[in-house]
Amino acid sequence: MSFELVRGTRDILPDEARRWQRIEAAFRAIADRYNYREIRFPVIEYTDLFARGIGETTDVVGKQMFTFPDQKGRSLTLRPEGTASAARAYLNAGLHVNDPFQKWYYLGPMFRYEKPQKGRYRQFHQYGVEVFGSLEPTVDAEVIGLAWSLMTELGLGGLRLKLNSIGCAADRARFQNVLREHFASSISSMCRDCQRRHQENPLRILDCKEAGCQPFIEEAPGSADNLCEDCAEHFSTVREHLDRLDLSYEIDPRLVRGLDYYTRTVFELISDELGAQDSLLGGGRYDGLVETLGGPSTPGIGFAGGTDRLAIVLEERENTPGEKTDLDLYLAALGDDGRSLALQLADALRRRGVAVDLDHRDRGLRKQLTEANRLGARYLLVLGDDEVASGRGNLKDMTIGEEDGVELTVEALVARLRTDCGGHDKEG
Length: 428
Ligand code: HAM
Prior knowledge:
Helix content: 25-40%
Strand content: 15-25%
Bound molecules: histidyl-adenosine monophosphate
Distance between the termini: 49 Å
């Protein structure tokens, strides 16, 4: 008997998980630097939250949600994204009244019933930020700058920032009509989904991926050419700020993003290294979302990126199957007494913040040395009968291959490792 994975889900095995930890640590560190604080919200919500927040006529709500009734027949949905939940949490906590300006970040799994392929999964993971309570273009630039910093920190190049503005609710309504008219003569040659979108929500035609629809979409008017004065000025100030921050962007007049809550600024970061699923990260303003969910008019802006996609790009760059550990010391032990001493020393050293590993498979010395190398341990200490009897051993520095005598006490070892493994000092 074997158990298969649910289609579109994956195991992230330890070698790969290290890369994920690196991405997550870099993201947290950068979020801290920008003074964003972590928010954690549930993985399941009432379906209405997403239906209202993201929009009934979006693909995410219309086709991609994992929705099911609970025992009492209430409709629940596995979160397909984080923005609607963040806005709900903001309202539920009464922050719109007590402390309306909030800068948040989050990390976690999201669920969409999509056709799985490389970089596209049914359970995927996002890192994201959301800012509530400011209309200032400086926030738009800060949020985009944060996204860019993350990529720089991770050493990613080959990135393009696409930028557009879809204006306020009134601009959007006007633009919907412009699009409806524009597509009126061609819509019968476009896909069925687009024909439905033409009736319900013409903006969504612009993010259709069908090859046959592209020639028509390429000729569509751009949203940024249809902005009211305020929105045009907002967009132009955002661009000025980005210029001053030296963040280069391309205006993509047909970038509208797949979720209905967006207003004004929208953006995506595209990686040349991702292939078909090239969008590393996307976001924008949602100045009407909090109000749609029953709160007061409250502006918001944020982005989310796919951790899975970032991990793919990093893996392809590094081209290394596994990664070395941060192990300070490997204890190679021989004989019952040696093994017992190794276990005790490892335990005591770990309590003092030293990363230590030892053999648990009764293997010979040669195999244990190979293992110490494979793990990339900084130091090696062999514990056999002689060492147990004399209370002294030889600490081998694996980087230079030199050995030095050391007393086998926790204090002596910690003192030696602290001096030499400064970077691995976990207590400091
Ligand atoms: P989104 O564009 O739907 O936006 O998703 C953001 C990112 O999540 C994408 O750029 C992609 O990297 C990743 N992603 C989406 N779907 C999948 C999938 N099926 N498999 C793997 N990765 C995927 C949002 O979710 C908005 N909530 C972003 C936002 C935050 N806007 C404002 N604030």
